[in-house]
Design brief:
Layout: H1 12-37, H2 44-56, H3 61-70, H4 74-96, H5 99-124, H6 136-149
Helix pairs in contact: 1-2, 1-4, 3-4, 4-5
Length: 150
């Protein structure tokens, strides 16, 4: 049960990260589409957006879109905005069907278990200098070797 005195937990930072991520994905997909369909000489439209993104996209999706509008490239800005909405709808559908949430949780749990397992192997063998470099095979061989010497 939630403590009534505890402040309400906010996920605004997650919302912001998702917005930036979906803008990035929309930009990436837009560039891929443009690379295939750009008929301008030397793929000038594709190259312009690619170079603009390389210099101006700083993982701040909304700021990037505003910069596109400021550059007079509302065509690109609107295309990315539309693509961002399509991607979000696809993700929500995937997530709401239970596939995204359950798989995401399973991935987190699997990764957490793997990290804990690696840490356990490292802590069981304090003779290895660098735990970062310790892997299961190395530890297993060392344990076998040590047990043979006993």
């Amino acid at each position: 049960m939630r403590d009534a005195r505890a402040p309400e937990q906010s996920f605004n930072d997650v919302d912001s990260l998702l917005m930036n991520y979906f803008t990035f994905r929309a930009l990436k997909e837009t560039l891929a589409q443009m690379q295939e369909t750009d008929l301008s000489p030397g793929k000038g439209e594709y190259k312009w957006l690619y170079n603009f993104a390389a210099s101006e996209y700083k993982n701040r999706g909304d700021e990037f879109i505003k910069k596109l509008f400021a550059e007079g490239r509302s065509d690109h800005a609107q295309r990315i905005l539309a693509q961002r909405v399509v991607l979000l709808k696809r993700w929500r559908s995937y997530f709401n069907r239970g596939l995204g949430g359950e798989r995401c949780q399973e991935k987190y749990e699997d990764v957490n278990l793997e990290i804990l397992r690696e840490q356990l192997f490292c802590s069981l063998n304090a003779e290895i200098d660098e735990c970062v470099e310790c892997d299961e095979a190395t530890l297993y061989n060392k344990i076998l070797k040590d047990s043979e010497q006993d």
